[in-house]
Each structure stands twice: as structure tokens, then as C-alpha cells.
């Protein structure tokens, strides 16, 4: 018996007996006839197998006919025609334009054939259900039919589409959702989705897992370091299929499309991602964009002539990344107890860095006790004696230190010496204290420095010297609390012996501490470096501090030379060496720039994470392409406390060079935070210039950010259908996977599934042609066997 006939018998199996009073007569009659058949065949001279076969066929036919006396009937529930909804949701994203391996038609073309309303499965579905048809790419769109279907969308908001259908018919009887897609959702988040709350979903997976040849740039990231040789590292993750054993060329281009660097990766493997890294030093400030593109070396020139390409698509061969170099200029305040060589080389090093401005206070004379000058008529410090400035009020008095102000200072800047208020000190991003005792500062200034690091988020670097650390009496001051090392209460002069610097294990992991590219080059540099002679003695490292440089004394003792740590919102560092300038004066080659490079990298690290008064960030809260991008702005006052009632305007420049202005509103009732929403519709690079103003209208600061919109790159992230995702949806929602060729069978089986609105339907089994055919077939078979063997 065929499987099809078995299925029909199962569907028609009786579950209701209308004439139960005929059960006993039917059993008696059937039993009597059965015994009569057995007696008749027993008396016939024939082979045993033949008699058994004939008797069995006739007995089954008699039992089937006797059963009809009880009127077997089939009672079942059938969907009420038109009472139940059924949604057909078709993916129209451009990823369906891919033609699978060995196929002449694309996935979209094969799907469009099945979407024709004249297809049998659509006709039958329309007879039993109220069919609602939808298409989706970036958003869900209802359609009357799929006559105008075209796979041209640049995104696959699959999750959003299913959620919209489920929410729309949450209070109505919906039998299920037929989802026709490749399963590659561009809005799929990592958060768990409760698919059990959705109607049964029946995914139809489009495409084969054996995808055609393609090279795709899956992800591009950029990171900035204080390592001067490569302040920006662009990393691209690339995957190829169909080019195993070949070479792939990766190119880095700037925003204007000019080629910056090229790398070649040989002998790639199918479906195995590999990474390429580019290191570049931008010569511009502000928001910059870089592009990474990849192609098979054998198909050079395919970006200008697509006919040279054998890939499935070129839309995923490139991606862009944004780099924000617009945080500077950074202001660094250098305060020294005396003129020294250290400042000379530090100032010379930073003169080449356009993003760092060094402002200095160098003490050239200490304050002197007042009683020493009772006989004098002038209150000016003795250094101004017999000069034209002696009578001026702005000169330092005899009981004040004489300070030399250096750097590109504005009028009146640092005229009163070290800042005495937060709004004056907080204009700086970092402070460097060099060979200066704690008594130089007032108690208020010491507390102000601590607030500068912990609250403002600034950086503090103390250099070694005769009046630094323990020798400077910092161990019981707020500034000493900032340092990453404990200061012993016992004074000991700086060590006067030769020693060499060495990198610790943690130091090797910090790019800003290294000067050379490789570990071996760095080791050789330290060997050739001139010996140093001054080292401050301190106590143990504080918890959480990191020792990056160390020295080994002549007695074989290892001591820290450079220690760092986080403190509040900022960071602090202690460079315990007091004569780093020897590195430059006593080096073999006068053209060696190692010291200058080390200083620039150290200062960049010191100011790298210092917050600005206006901070801006572009945040895409979800992967959903329809979800607006949020431009979040944080505004602080002069004391770096959240500022309310600020006015924040955002000027967005689109890839088409169109400009529009947004107004940021207070965000979630959080003090000092503002936000505006924007949905990028055009692929490409976006810039946003944020201007924050005080409540009185005065400008606080301008800041920039940017972002990249690449829906095609996300759409073609992978060409392989996401079977696992679709199977998860089907299993957890109560549906099942359906093949494109099996839509007819699936629609026929819907009537036997759990449908919201059904009606009972009872019919007689005897009136079905399958049962009648079985009974007649059994009798004909028995008669045929007898005729064949001559028993008739």
C-alpha cells in the first residue's frame, strides 16, 4: 500500500459510531460469515498459502462491510473559511539578488515565481484564511499582492517585521506567519527574544548554504594610541569563499579615495576570516574617515571595471571607519622649582606636536622672609633691584617666589602664579610638577590639584628631583595622596649612582612607554641608552598602581622608575628619575630623537582621556536600521559639574554635503546630558558639529563627532542563509521549517494544525472513495487469485 493511500486512510479513520445499536448484530453477522469463509476454504484443494491469502482478503472485506452497519463517521475541526488570519511576509532586501552555486536564477527570482497569486498554494490558502501579505526591508510594508515585488532594499529588518505583525494582530485570531527570507537579519540584537509569545512562524529559507565565490570586508575598527609611530591603527576583518589558496589585496584609502597603504595576504582559506592592520599617522585634526577595501589579486581593477569580477557582489568589498582627532589642543601646565635641562627638552619635544600646548611656571628665585628687608623702602624682590620693573605693582614681592612664565600665554594668564581657583586651573588638561617642594603651594592649591585629578579628570605627572616626592614633603599632603606610590616619612637623598632603565612586563604592553617597534629593538635601545644617576627613594606601590619602568642599582636592588594609576576620573604618574635629560646629552648620535618621542608619547597618554567641557557621542542603540541614531551630548560648567539649562545645537552634514540643524533636548531628566535623534537615510560618512551655549547665550565650546552608515555592508555581511536563526524562530514559536518546493503540502496540512477559530465537521466514512476502493480492491484481489489458480 502506498504512503499516499496510508495517509488518506489515517485522515479518514472513524472516531464516531452513529449506529451503536448495530454493534452486536454486526459482530454476529461478521463472525458467522468469517467462519463460513474459513470452512469453505478448508474444503478446497489448493496450496496453503493460496488459501490463506484468499481467505484473508475476503475476511477483511467482510469485516469492512460489516463495520459499515455501525455507520462509522469522522468528526473533526476545520478552520472557518475567512475567520482566521494568515500572514505571508516576504523579504525584499538586496541580499536575495545572489544566485546560489550552480543556479541560473537568483534567490529573488525563484521567490517571485512562488509569490504569484495563481500558485496553487496561494489559491488554497486564500480559500481557508484571510491572507495578509507583507514585504519588508528596512520596514514592513503591506501589499495587496506581490506583483511589484523587487529585491532592492538595503536592509533586512526581520525581527522588527515579525514584531510588527505580531503586535498588529495580537488581539485577533492569527493562525501563523509564513516567513520567506534568507534569515540574515540586519536588526538582530544580542538580547534574548521570547519567540513563544509570537504566533506560529513557518520560515521558508531561501538560498543554499553552498554559497558562490565572494570576498567580504566584514568589520573595520579604529583605535588611537599615544604610540607616536602609529597613533591610529585600522583593523579590518576579511573573509573569502571560493578563492582558497589565492592572494587577497587589502587597501587603505582616505576620505578622498587616495590610496594610503596596501597589504597582500597569501594562501587564504574558504570561510576562515583573517585580519589586516594598517598603522597611519594622520596629518589633520578633526573627524576623519578611512576606507578599507579588499579583492582577489587575480582580479585587480574590478572596482573600475566590474566585468573583471567573478564575485557574487561587490557591495561588501569595502567598509569605512571614523576616527576623531578633534579633541585638542590640550593645555599642559608645567611647574618647576628651578630652571633645568628637563624643561628644555620637554618644551622642544612638544613644540612639534600641534595638539599640545605647554604653559610653564619656572621659579627663578624663592621667596625670602620679610624680616630680612625691614631697612628697605621697596617691597619688590631683590632680583628686581636696580631694574626698571622694581617699582611696578605686578612684580613679585620680597616674600613671594619669582616665576618665569613661558609658553603661548594669553594676556593675564598665570599672572598670579599657580592658579588659585577651579575655573582657572580646570582650563588645563594636565599638570607636571618638577623638582618642586610641597610648601610652594598653599593648602587650598593642594586641594585644588586633587580636585583637578579626581573631579575634573585631569592628568598629574611628578618628575624626580632634589625637592620631589619624599624630599619635597608631599607625604602628608593632598598631592601626595594622588601619587601611585607611598612616600616614606624618613628622608633619604636621591640615589647618586649609575643605573639603567628597563621595561617591566606591564611596560611592554603599553605602547606609549615603548619607543621602538619590536621588543628586540626596544631591548637594544635600553642597552645603548646613557646611564642615569638620580633616583628618588619612595615606599611601596599603592594597590592598583602599575610599574612600567624599573632600574637596577649597583647593589642589585630593583626599584621603580615609572609608576602610574587611576585616581577618580583622572590618572597620575610618578617618574622617579631626576636626570632623564642625560638621555639626550650623552647619546651617541645627536640626531637621535628617542627622548623627544618618549616625551610626546608620555604627554599624549597623560591628556588622552581627559574630558572636555562638551563631550559628544553618536550612539546606535540597536542594530535596527529604522531605529534613530542618538547624538548624546554631555555639558559641564567651569568646575566640570553638570550644567543644566544649556542650549545645544547640532549641525549634521550628510554624505551629499547637505546640512541640517538639530536641537538637543535634556536626556532622561539627567543633569547636564542632552540628546537628539537622527535617522541616516543615505549611505556614507556623516559629520556632526555640536555647539553648546550657557544660559546667557555665551558659547561654551564646539565639539565634533561622526559616524558611518553602510547598510549594504551589513546586508551582505554573509551570503550564507542563517538556518540556525530560522530554526530557532520556528521551534520556539511553535512553527516549523518549510521548503520552497513544499508550500503546497504545507498549506494542505494547515487545516489539521492548531487553528484559533474552527468549526466541527462530521461526515460518513463509507461515503469516502478511499474506503470504498479498499473494500472493492480486497474482493477483486480474492477473486483474481482464485481465477489465477483455477479455483473459481
Automatic annotation (TrEMBL):
Pfam family, one: GATase1_like
Database matches in PROSITE patterns: FILAMIN_REPEAT
SUPFAM superfamilies: Class I glutamine amidotransferase-like
Residue spans crossing the bilayer: 22-41, 48-70, 766-785
Superkingdom of this protein's organism: Bacteria
Keywords: Membrane, Transmembrane, Transmembrane helix
InterPro entries: Class_I_gatase-like (IPR029062), Filamin/ABP280_repeat-like (IPR017868), GATase1-like (IPR010768), Ig-like_fold (IPR013783)
Domain (Putative glutamine amidotransferase): residue spans on this chain: 413-607
Protein name as catalogued: Putative glutamine amidotransferase domain-containing protein
Native organism taxonomy: Bacteria, Pseudomonadati, Planctomycetota, Planctomycetia, Pirellulales
